[in-house]
Amino acid sequence: MSTIHNEIEWQFESERPGEAQDYLVALVRAHGLKAGKRRTETHRDTYLDTGDWRFYRAGYALRVRQAAQGNRSHVELTLKSLDGAQGALRHRREITERVELRQGEDLARLVCAAPGPVGERVRAVSGCAPIGALFEIVTRRTTVALHRGNTLMAEVALDQSTISAPAGQMPVALQRIEIEATAEAQDELQTFIDAWLETYPMGVPTQSKFEAGLTAQGLLPVKAADLVAAPLSLTGRSLSRLALGELALAMVRKRVADLLECEPGARLGEDIEALHSMRVATRRLRALLRLFQDALPEHGTIIRSELRWLAGVLGETRDLDVHLEQTRAWASEAGAEERAALDTLAQLLEQDRLVARRAMLTTLDSARYERLKVSLIALCGRSLSELPPQAVKPAEQAMPKLLSRRYRRLHELADVLTDESPPADFHAARIQGKRLRYALEAAAPLYGKPARALIKRLAEMQDVLGRYQDAQVAVTRVNELCAKHSGDLPADTVAALNRIAQRYAQHGEEIRQEFWPAWRALRRAWDKFSTNLSS
Q1: How far apart are CA 369 and CA 442, in angstroms?
Q2: What is the rounded CA–CA span in Å between residue 181 and residue 310?
Q3: Residue 332 and residue 466: Cα distance in Å, rounded?
Q4: What is the distance between the alpha carbons of residues 146 and 21, in angstroms, rounded to a whole number?
Q5: Which helix H or strand E contains 501, and what residues bound it?
Q6: How far apart are alpha carbons 215 and 197 in whole angstroms?
Q7: Helices 515-534 and 423-447: crossing angle, nearest 10°?
Q8: Alpha carbon distance 463, 404 (integer Å)
């Protein structure tokens, strides 16, 4: 048995938790809700992660809950999001799976072999990295279920927990009341809770049980920035004395940290923005390695090529994410016939995305990707003395030429675009615009507010060109899917999909008209910014 849902839960601390629980039950009973019999059980929760904290960096805690004793028992595997609380109320995504545990069986091996949604995600996130236990929490829980008629509204739980501590230290005790409600009952339960708190004022925990466990064990999760050399701090530096190589290394370290930070979330696949951010990090890194190529080691060219390979693999899944999102949005507004065709298209895209994700995970588990990460981390560890002679040149002297060159290339491409220009020409301008934007982001410590203002204009133009490119890709993909599945799809579905492709094309034409105002605004912003380069 497995479930995927969004948990809605209030958490409180009280000196008289038993009385508080009794009062809440009596309060809801007086308003027509039915309280079930009290149930008490003891469960043991073991939290796990990889050595580099991949689940934590993906935004989740991995838990194995054991509630029975004996030679064989069923345990519950859970991935729970680490979303922040809003006062006492927490909204968290929870993915659970029930599996059988044999006595003496290794929990990490059990989790990795689980066949359901938790096991699938664990294998995706951990890859080849081993999983180990962090700590245990033993809880004696007394719960009361609240119903309206035959409909479950909430469960009120009194938890008395003991968190394991390092050898020689006392375990940590927690005593909490947790109220988990269904989405339909949240507002009504909030009314009862507000009335309840007037009689039994209670504290709000500052940490979840998982966070309390980390504190008890003295564990500090690793961030991606900790995996690379300490970034050069530009704060308080005399920027007139900043060497080009120092600026280059500082920016490369930041982007390598971005890439590594996003990897676990991209592997998990619960938030499509994690994959997008990882792909953008590869682009920014490639742009930096090209921008600062004279101030960085020669093997930066090889790393750039490997990043292009990685970006291509990530891009296949990302493009499908974008297309699926657009397809679902259109389906929600379409008529019955087109909605059916769009639902069919979404199913085909889901199949393609599954294949693309498998290929992506294979890539992220590969020795080639591991070598790329090692090379990037090694580059981050370089010192100025290990860089080419060009690296010692003052950044203030070198950057104007580098930035002007990138703007000139963009101008050559963008200023000649017309309504008759093919989509490929707009895409080429988009790529060059990205290179200028990433260069300006690297130069922002030197130029401050003027650089940020120009970046904003670039982002606006990039948004237009990005949406135009997405429309072009969508047309191509719909046409390819129609051709690929023409023998499997009903004629009316193919006809509806062809109409949808035409709509994508028309949508692209409408977006393209937004380009020229955005380009003119960017040119004016550049003219204003360029005075900072010559001064």
Answers
A1: 25
A2: 43
A3: 23
A4: 12
A5: helix 491-512
A6: 28
A7: 30
A8: 22
Structure tokens at 407: 């703007």
CA dist 435 and 407 (Å) reads: 9
What is the pLDDT averaged over residues 213-217?
A: 94
* Largest separation between any pair of C-alpha atoms in the chain: 81
One-letter amino acid for residue 348 of the chain? L
Distance (Å, whole) CA 279 – CA 346: 23
The pLDDT tens digits for 283-295 are: 999 999 999 999 9
CA–CA separation, 440 and 432 (whole Å):
12
Residue 95 belongs to what H/E stretch?
Answer: strand 89-102
Per the CB < 8 A criterion, the answer to whether 162 and 171 are in contact is yes
* Token pair recorded at residue 232: 């050069």
Structure tokens at 106: 């290794």
Helix (H) or strand (E) holding 122: helix 117-126
**What global pTM score does this model have?**
0.88
Q: For residue 87, give every residue at least 6 positions away whose Cβ sits within 8 Å of its Cβ, in sequence order, or none.
A: 204
Structure token pair of residue 485: 């599945």
At residue 245's C-alpha, the angle toward residues 242 and 246, to 5°, is: 50
Q: Which of 280, 183, 194, 208 is nearest to 61 (CA)?
A: 208
Asked whether 289 and 304 are in contact (CB, 8 A), the reply is yes
State the Cα–Cα distance between residues 435 and 446, nearest whole angstrom: 18
CA distance 25 to 8: 18
Q: How far apart are CA 221 and CA 54, in angstroms?
A: 9
- pLDDT tops 60 at residue 212: yes
C-beta atoms surrounding 184 within 10 Å = 12
CB burial readout 426-460, b (16+ within 10 A) else e: bbbbbebbbbbbbbbbbbbbbbeebbeebbebbeb
Query: Is residue 147 classed exposed, middle or buried when 0-12, 13-18 and 19+ CB atoms within 10 A define those classes?
Result: middle
Residues 296/248, Cβ–Cβ less than 8 Å: yes
Q: Percent of the chain, pLDDT > 70?
A: 96
Q: How far is CA 460 from the centre of its chain?
A: 23
Residue 317, pLDDT > 60, answer: yes
Which tokens sit at 88? 């006492």
Identity of residue 487: G
Phi/psi of residue 512, nearest 5 degrees: -60, -30
Tokens 């900790």 correspond to 226
**Contact between 177 and 17 (Cβ < 8 Å):** yes
